[in-house]
Model the fold of this input.
Amino acid sequence: MKKLLNAIAMVSVLAGSAFSIANAAEVTSATAAAVSQAEVRKIDAANLKITLRHGPLANIGMPPMTMVFTVQDGAELEGLKVGDKVQFVAQQQGSQFVATELQPAP
Done:
């Protein structure tokens, strides 16, 4: 009986681990799907804003266009210049659109 209970406990632990791994992979692929490509059109570092001509923003259901995004960390704007290709994750916070994970495109 003790061996049976140990076996059941082991199966339970392994099943929980497999679920955690699958769930982590789902989160990673969801984040990857949220990454968008864009071209820098204007930088307003003093006001933490960047104008981007972006492709589709699948995670918020927006078609390609040029628009202004807020950044929360001015360091993300450092080293960028008009014409640079970047990748970022767009988020809508109330009526504002925020560019996070902003970095030069590979």
In short: The first strand starts at residue 35 and ends at 44. DSSP finds one helix and five strands in the chain.
